[in-house]
Amino acid sequence: MEIKHIQNKRKINKVKNSIVLPIQQYFKDIELGGLILILVTILALIIANSPLGESYFHFWHTKIGFSLGNRGFSIDFHTLINDVLMTLFFIVVGGEIKREIIEGALSSKEKAILPVLAALGGMMFPALIYLFFNFGQSTSSGWGIPTATDIAFSLTVFSLLGKKAPFSLKIFLAALAIADDLGAIVVIAFFYSSNLDWQFLFSGFIIVAILLGMNKMGAKNLYLYSFLGILLWYFFYMAGIHPTISGVIYAIAVPFSFSNYGEIYKKQTEILQSYILTLLDKNTTDKLVRAEIIEKIQDESHKMEAPLHNVLIFLHPITNYFIMPLFAFANAGILINTSAFDSLASPVALGIMFGLMIGKSTGILLTSFIAVKLKIAQIPDGITWKQIYGMAWLAGIGFTMSMFVTGLAFTNLNHIETAKIAILLASTLSGIIGYILLKKLSK
User: Fold this and answer.
1) Does residue 138 sit within a domain?
2) Is residue 230 part of a domain?
3) What is the DSSP letter of 67?
4) SS3 260
5) Could you please report the per-residue DSSP string of 219-233?
């Protein structure tokens, strides 16, 4: 009986180590990245409104590049961040969506239907509210701005509640935000790409076909996938499709299947046996020999993981602690003066603020309620409707994705600055209201 109890305990620990701990680590990384984003955003606002402000704005338009004879290539820092580095962020977004669909919160109809429908409602309502304020105007192109949810910021605010809010609600928020990211990718691909060059677009589609064909055949060479991914970025960039979409396609193409555990386990066992023999051999004192054997074991363990998993492990710290803060630092710097506050009464600002704050919370709650009442979906265990409403306010924190879409929706600098102010204000208020509601409910 005791042996059976121990075996059951080991099984439970195994499940915990393979499922629960990675999820907790994922949340921990995102929440820390969110805190860094908040600090960097505050720093950008301070610098932009200080004597260094002029240098700050000028710096992002500084061009870098190279020339070979009569040909050359140049790009400013702002474009480098928004079009090149953000592609790596979209690889992570695409990878997380793929992983959630395969084995996570979106892996079955029962799990996926409620957060997906909630995300859909949380995108449609803000878009309609924005169009209500901007109907028939040139600024109507900004309807995609208030549809976004910033997963890092929203989970960071949620983490401040500690154990006062149920973990299942946190999973629901993460799944909703990931489904929202998928919607944002579709919006960017179909509505914010223009002046298409069909020759480059056709070349891009050929690369996509090759990537998906490699996936179908089980190819796992990340170097080849990455080379083709770079080509795809170039063709999409030249074609007029926003190049960050190439990052999502790359993530979809890279395999998520795992290697043959039997063969790798056999190799690891052989290496481990040689390591043990080395330890037992009194004549072997060379630490380099031992280090080499350990490195071989780690290398074989690395091969066991799915290629996409290794890509995400590599890119997560880069995107969370470097690319996203850099994006925030480059895009969140706004001049705050009387004219800035006057612009809050403009259709652009009203559409964004009401969209993120009222549209998100209403859309998510109403769509979820209808889906449950029609028995299309089920509310997760241990969660109340009031908690879902509080969580829906946190989903109104648009920040990163909203800022990103702003750069695609507008070319007028005044509209861009107005949108950024509205995003910052609406995201801040949404976070505060969501936090207060959830904290009050926890009592």
Assistant:
1) yes
2) no
3) E
4) coil
5) ---HHHHHHHHHHHH
Give start and end residues of each alpha helix (H) in 138-256. 151-159, 167-191, 198-217, 222-239, 244-253
Same domain, 141 and 171: yes
The whole-angstrom separation of Cα 159 and Cα 165 is 9
With respect to residue 334, please indicate whether it lies within any of the assigned structural domains: yes
State whether 388 and 365 are in the same domain.
yes
User: How many separate domains does the chain show?
Assistant: 2
* CA 41/CA 145 separation, integer angstroms: 18
Q: What is the pTM of this model?
A: 0.75
Cα distance from N-terminal residue to C-terminal residue, the chain:
42
Q: b/e per residue, 106-127, with b = 16+ CB within 10 A?
A: beeeebbebbbbbbbbbbebbb
Mark whether 404 and 282 lie in a shared domain.
Answer: no
Instruction: Give residue 126's pLDDT.
Output: 96
Determine the average pLDDT of the residues in 9-26. Answer: 47
Secondary element (H or E) of residue 270? helix 261-280
Residue 221 lies in a domain: no
How do residues 257-275 score in pLDDT, each as one tens digit? 755 555 555 666 666 666 6
Tens of pLDDT, residue by residue over 125-170, are 999 999 999 998 989 999 999 998 888 788 888 888 877 778 788 8
Same domain, 271 and 253: no
Where does residue 170 fall: left (phi above 0), alpha (psi -120 to 50 degrees), or beta otherwise? alpha
Strand partners, 68: 71
Q: How many CA atoms lie within 13 A of 169 on its CB side?
A: 27
Whether residue 355 sits in one domain with residue 283: no
Structural contact between residues 28 and 20, judged by C-beta atoms closer than 8 angstroms = no
Three-class DSSP labels, 373-394? HCCCCCCCCCCCHHHHHHHHHH
Domain hosting 282: range is 261-300
Could you write out the three-class secondary structure of 314-368? HHHHHHHHHHHHHHHHHHCCCCCCHHHHHHHHCHHHHHHHHHHHHHHHHHHHHHH
pLDDT tens-place string over residues 340-384: 778 888 999 999 999 999 999 999 999 999 999 998 988 887 888
How high is the pLDDT of residue 425?
92
Q: Could you tell me the CATH number of the domain that includes residue 315?
A: 1.20.1530.10
